[in-house]
Amino acid sequence: MPEPPLPRTRAAPIFAVASGKGGVGKTWLSTMLSIAYGRGGQRALLVDCDLGLANVDVQLGVRPQADVHSVVRGFLELDAAVTPVMGGPGRSGGFDLIAGHSGSGALGSVKLDEVSRIAASLPKLAPHYDRIILDLAAGIDPNVLRFARAADRLILVTTEEPTALTDAYAMVKLLRLQGSQLTPWVVVNMAENRMKGRRVFDQFALACNEYLGFKPKFAGAICRDPRVPDSIRAQTPLPVRHPQSQAYEDVIRIVETLNAG
C-alpha cells in the first residue's frame, strides 16, 4: 500500500468531469487533466466514479491492487484504495488514481446512500492534494448527479453532435432543478478547429441563458487529433506516446483557463 501523501496547506478543489452522453471523451479528458496538473507540479487525485462501466485504469494501462468496489463493499476506506500512476504525485505527470471496477457491471445498481457515503468521504482526501478530479459516468441517473453535486466545479464535456449538446443541456437542467448553483465550465471536444468549437459553445450557452437563466463558462475546445485514438488503443497517455500533439496542447490551454477562473 502506498504511503499517504502529506497534508497540503489548502484543501484541493473537487472537479467533476461530466457529460450527458457517452463517447464524447470525458474519461480521456479526466486523465489528461490529471497528467497536466501533475506536470505542473500539483498533486492530483483522479477518482473513477463510473460505478457500472469503469475504464480509467484500462485507458491508462494500469492494474490497481484496490478499487472503489472494495470501498462500496466496506472492505477499505477511500484513501486506502489509491493507486499511483506514472510514479504518483511528485513525479513529472504522475498522479494518484482511485480506480473503478472495470470489466464488471457489479456496481451499476449501487444504492444512492452508498454513493453519498463515497461522495461525503472526498473532502477528507482534499487536504492531501491540490486537485481532485472525478470522472463521472455518462448520463443523468441519480448516482451521477449526486457525485456532480459533491464537486466545487463542474466541467461539462460535449461535442458538436446535436445529441451530445441535448444531453449536456439535460444534465445541467436537472442539476439546477435539484438546487445546484454550480456554473459549468464547458469543453467542446473533437472540434474541427477552435473557432468552430467556440461557436458550438456559444450555441449551448445561448440555450442555457434563454431557458435556464444563466450563462456557462467556456473552458476551451479540443481539436480532433488522430493521435488520441492511437494513444487510447496503445493504453499509453497521449503526452507520453505523442509528446507533440495538438489535443494535449489544447488541454494545457484549458488548464490555464480553469486556473485563471
Topology overview:
Elements: E1 14-18, H1 26-39, E2 44-48, H2 56-60, H3 68-72, E3 82-85, E4 95-98, H4 112-125, E5 131-135, H5 142-149, E6 153-158, H6 162-177, E7 185-191, H7 194-211, E8 217-223, H8 227-233, H9 238-241, H10 246-260
Parallel strand pairs: 1-5, 1-6, 2-4, 2-5, 6-7, 7-8
Antiparallel strand pairs: 3-4
Note the gap between the termini.
Answer: 36 Å
Largest sheet: 8 strands, mixed
Structural class: alpha/beta
Helix content: 40-55%
CATH topology: Rossmann fold
Description:
- This protein is α/β, with parallel strands linked by helices and 261 residues long.
- It has a single domain, classed as 3-Layer(aba) Sandwich (Rossmann fold), CATH 3.40.50.300.
- The chain contains 10 helices and 8 strands.
- The chain has helices spanning 26-39, 56-60, 68-72, 112-125, 142-149, 162-177, 194-211, 227-233, 238-241, 246-260, and strands spanning 14-18, 44-48, 82-85, 95-98, 131-135, 153-158, 185-191, 217-223.
- Strands 3-4-2-5-1-6-7-8 form an 8-stranded mixed β-sheet, with helices on both faces.
- The N and C termini lie far apart (36 Å).
